Amino acid sequence: MGKPLTLGWFVNYMPTGWNRPFHGGQPAAWQDGQFYVDMARTLDRAGIDFIMLEDSSVVPENYGGDMTAEFMATVKSPKHDPLPLAAAIAQATDRLGIVTTMSTSLYPPERLARLQASLDELSNGRAGWNIVTSFEDLAAQNVGLEKLWEHDERYARAHEYLDVVTSAWQGAVDHDGRFNQVVSPGSPMPVQDRPVLCQAGGSKAGMDFAAEWADLIVSVPVGVEAMKAYRDGIRSRIAESGGDPDRCRVLYMVTPILGETDEEAQAKRARMYSDATDNYLRRIVQLSNISEIDFSKFDEDEPVPEDATTNGAQSILDTFKRLTKDSSLREVLGNSGESTSLDLCGSPATVADQMEAAMEEVGGDGFLLFHGGGGIITRRYLDEVLDGLVPELESRGLFERPVRGGGPVAASGTFRGRLTGA
Prior knowledge:
The chain is α/β, with parallel strands linked by helices. It is 42% helix and 13% strand. The longest helix is centred in the middle third of the chain and has 19 residues, at 151-169. The protein starts with 5 loop residues before the first strand and ends with a helix. The model is unreliable at 406-411 (pLDDT under 50).
């Protein structure tokens, strides 16, 4: 391995594991944000590089054509706005990068530039922006639009949007005909030259966009071969444009399932992903949400139809077409658990072996940890990862915990500075 792995944690400002074992006894406590502020403090102490706060503004109706399944599964709703939560996290932590999700289709550029710069000031240079283009027509209707643009058009607009926003951060006046506004040079300036830019493009248009703009890329190609192909594709795009491929870190989303022994972890995994539990409904609703396809119309004991199309996350749909080609949707959801890049299960040592082997093959940069959507995260899961897996990675030199007050990895400095080594 070269540089130590970058580790982040992806989370939703939603109900926690309210109906799970070890839910903590206060199922409504998520609403005031204290669970997530405490979580951020814990991540900060453990040396995790950043927390990424997901966002969306709709109650999806993708599965079954109405909101019923969504409220049963609590995948994307109910949900609070993560931007005020990010400010609270900034005050409670010292080093942790804080990445917020904001859409180029839903926020006016000047408004987004001010919000991100303000969060960077409040966090003393620890802000990041997870750039999304959005795809839900219900989200468009929340801001007075009838529907959102087609997939590639959204990315074409996003390129121009980034030109406008970065001009604002540089204190320039920029008029853009597409957005029909002047960005004021009076907006606050970031502590960093710009907040850390994160993106998750998986399609060709998305990868082109990510290669041009992103400092961090979050990806979900399934399996080591696909992970390597994705990272090589990003790096070749950057190199072809004359950039340094090492300027961008590619992270893979994973959900480690841990036990004191491999057998204990495997039994836990079998319980979690059985199609006899409510987790199965949660996973198929989640798949409908991110693909913008009603999976209730498909036979779950057959492959995903090859002629299925979407204006949503095309790379996710293509992945499930490939995975179910010689099996079925039910079998894949039961065997592969979450929509993640690696199936990590075992003792901390076993899972560290799996992560190390994958990175040796991929040449990768790190992982984004995730434990389902809403309704599933618990303090116990945090402890298993941060007190079990992370120290194991550290003991192998795969992860470098910061030394408070200075030392090999100082706790001070901006998010961008630590990420790039500048």
